[in-house]
Backbone:
């Protein structure tokens, strides 16, 4: 399998870390995803999709446990990504699993809306 090529989108309070383990791509988000990091979040979600397809992974895990806040402008990047996946239906190349922190109620509300947008693609842990 090819080497992971995930761009460094860290900065302005947001850091990302991507790890490839077999057929699972895990991306950990930490810090604050606000208006100032919206462009970085768009790059990150684009990279999640691009690397998942390129490396033929079966699952993309988005670990939000270290993310304190996400603005609507950053949520939009996830909506765009997941809506495109959902349009593919059963031909989608992979599924997305969000890992949440119980201490951040906003994560549950936000990811529940994302799960409803793409019920065939999204699952939630935490």
Residues:
């Amino acid at each position: 399998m090819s080497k992971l090529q995930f761009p460094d989108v860290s900065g302005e309070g947001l850091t990302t870390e991507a790890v490839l383990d077999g057929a699972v791509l895990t991306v950990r988000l930490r810090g604050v995803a606000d208006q100032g990091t919206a462009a970085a979040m768009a790059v990150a979600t684009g990279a999640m999709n691009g690397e998942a397809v390129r490396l033929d992974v079966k699952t993309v895990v988005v670990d939000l446990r270290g993310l304190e806040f996400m603005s609507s402008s950053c949520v939009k990047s996830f909506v765009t990504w997941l809506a495109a996946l959902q349009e593919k239906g059963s031909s989608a190349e992979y599924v997305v699993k969000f890992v949440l922190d119980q201490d951040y109620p906003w994560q549950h509300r936000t990811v529940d809306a994302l799960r409803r947008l793409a019920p065939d693609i999204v699952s939630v842990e935490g």
